[in-house]
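Run: sequence + nicotinamide-adenine-dinucleotide -> complex structure.
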Amino acid sequence: MKIAIIKELAEGERRVAGTPETVKKFKALGAEVAVEAGAGLTADIADQDYAAMGAALGDRAATVAGADIILGVQGPDPASIAGAKPGAWIVAGLNPFAERARVDAYAAAGYEALAMEFMPRITRAQSMDILSSQSNLAGYKAVLDAAHEYGRAFPMMMTAAGTISPARAFVMGVGVAGLQAIATAKRLGAQVSATDVRSATKEQIESLGAKAIFVESVAGIEGEGKGGYATEMSEEYRKAQAELVSSHIARQDIVITTALIPGKPAPRLITDAQIASMKPGSVIVDLAVEQGGNVEGAVAGQVVERHGVKIVGHKNVPSRLAADASALFARNLYNFLSAFWNKDQNAPVLDEEIGNAIRITQGGKVVSERLL
Ligand code: NAD
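>> structure
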C-alpha cells in the first residue's frame, strides 16, 4: 500500500494534505508514504520533516507512480497525475459540482475519486469532516481579517485620555464558521449579536454570550432541513428577515456573513441599501463570496469599498492559516483512512454508508447520485 501526498498546484492554495504527524501514523498502519518535494513549504513544513518520519521524497511523477491512494487538499489536475495507476484512489476536497470536467477525467482514467466534502454529518464521521475543520478556522480568520481592515479597536478601552466604546459585531449564519466567529469576536472584546434561520442556533448563540437576533413574526418557520443544513426560506420569511436585519445592521461596525445552503447559491443577506445605512469605516467580511456571496457587491479575492464600508471577499480563507488548516485537514484524512483500515489487506475497506456518500467515480464511471 503506497500513499502519495502531492503538492497543491491551484493558485493561492497554501495547504498540504499530509503532515509529518500523519506520515508517521500511516507508516505505523503499515503503509509506504511518498511526499512530493516542496509539498509542505507553504504550510511551514520542510521536506526533511517528512523524511524524518520515513516518507520518500521525490518529484511528482515518482510520488504518484504506483500509488494506491493519492491525497490532496484540492483535486489534482488529471494531467498532472497522468502516471498514476488505474484504480488508484484520489482523496481530497474535489469540489465536484464546479469541477465536473475534472471528475469526468478521473472516471475516464479509472481512478476512484472520493470527495471528502460529501462526508455524511454523522457522529462517527465528525473527526473526518474537512468542512468542519476548515470552516472553524475560516470563522476565526474572518474576524481577524475584519479587525485588520477596521480603523478602530474592538474592545472597550478606558484610558486616561478617555473611553473607547466597543465594536459591535454581527454574525449572519451560525454554523461551524459562524460559531467560531462569535467566539473570536467576543474574545477580542466586541459586543456580538448573531442570526440564523435554524432555531437550534439561538441557544448556541446565547451560550457564547452573544445576542440572538431572530425573525419571530412569521408563523411556522424552521430553516433546518436534511442533515442539519439550512433550507431555502419563503418569500414572507425573507422579507421579515430583511426588515429585521436592516434596522440592526445600521448600528453595526463589523458584519461577518457565512450563510450557505447546500447545492444552491449562497442566499443574499445584505443589499447595497443596507450597506449604505452603515457607518463609514464599518467592515463586512463575506465568507460565502466564492459560492455567490451573501453581500451585494462583494468580489471574490478582493477588498472593495462601497459607501465608505469595506467589503472583504478573501478566497480560500482556511489557506490563510495554512499550517493549522493543513494539520487539521491531514488528520481528517488520516482519521478517515485509519477508521476503515483492514489489517489483512493492508488497505482501507469502506463501509456502504460512507463509501456510497463520498465515492464519486469508480470503474470508469461517475457513480455519485448527487452528480448524475
Ligand atoms: P453551512 O456552512 O452549510 O451554513 C452556514 C450557516 O448559514 C448555517 O448555520 C445555516 O443555517 C445558515 N444559513 C443558511 N441560510 C441562511 C439565511 N438565509 N440566513 C441566515 N443564516 C442562514 O453550515 P455548517 O457550518 O456546515 O453547519 C450546518 C449544520 O451541520 C450545523 O447544525 C452543524 O452543527 C452541523 N454539523 C454536523 C456535523 C457532524 O455531525 N459531523 C459536522 C459539522 C456540522
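>> summary
Residues 127 and 332 are 6 Å apart (CA to CA). The first strand starts at residue 2 and ends at 5.
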